[in-house]
Design goal:
Helices cover 43% and strands 14% of the residues. The protein has helices spanning 10-18, 30-39, 49-57, 70-79, 115-120, 138-154, 158-168, and strands at 3-5, 23-25, 43-46, 62-64, 101-104, 124-127, 133-134. Helix 6 (138-154) runs antiparallel to helix 7. Bound molecules: zinc ion. Residues 94, 96-97, 99, 127, 129-130, 132 line the site of zinc ion (ZN).
């Protein structure tokens, strides 16, 4: 399932990418959103009921969300059958640009990350599109905390999560 999110759903879009969903975000113009959703066969995610109606008339698949919060939106997506299982980095997309993320050899990021980071970590990932480097630092741990919360909401088995986190940290 591929998505296109409207401008009100930036946080959700970043999380969908982290869970490996191909998610476009950043198009402001409604007509353009509808055009891309149609031509790329993407499910439209929106909080705008007017836009949702227009999409439905065009025969597009659309999930109209009502919640303001990430947690609430995840719950709503679950009712549409969207699961949140494989957290970053396995199969993830870059939260910034939707590009694909690949693990790289440590040497490849020398000079591209702060020296202290280079010395402290051995696991690095690079976005194949925008070249952003990722490693299991503080932000990553924050992400895992939120992941735990979201998993509770979306009802994923606890045992599976523990293994995934063990690997991440
Ligand atoms: Zn990127």
């Amino acid at each position: 399932m591929k998505f296109i999110a409207d401008m009100m759903l930036g946080r959700l879009a970043r999380w969908l990418r982290l869970y490996g969903y191909d998610t476009l975000y950043g198009i402001e113009e409604d007509n353009e959103i509808l055009r891309v959703a149609s031509s790329e066969n993407r499910v439209l995610l929106t909080r705008d009921s007017g836009l949702a109606k227009r999409a439905e008339k065009l025969g597009l698949k659309v999930f109209l969300l009502h919640s303001n919060s990430l947690e609430g939106q995840v719950k709503e997506l679950k009712t549409h059958g969207v699961g949140f299982k494989e957290l970053f980095p396995a199969g993830a997309r870059c939260p910034k640009c939707n590009g694909q993320i690949k693990r790289v050899e440590k040497e490849e990021v020398k000079g591209k990350v702060p020296e202290c980071v280079y010395e402290r970590y051995d696991e690095f990932y690079v976005c194949q599109n925008c070249r952003q480097v990722y490693w299991p630092g503080r932000q990553w741990r924050e992400m895992v905390k939120i992941d735990r919360k979201l998993k509770k909401i979306s009802g994923v088995d606890d045992g599976m999560q523990q293994n995934a986190h063990g690997k991440l940290l």
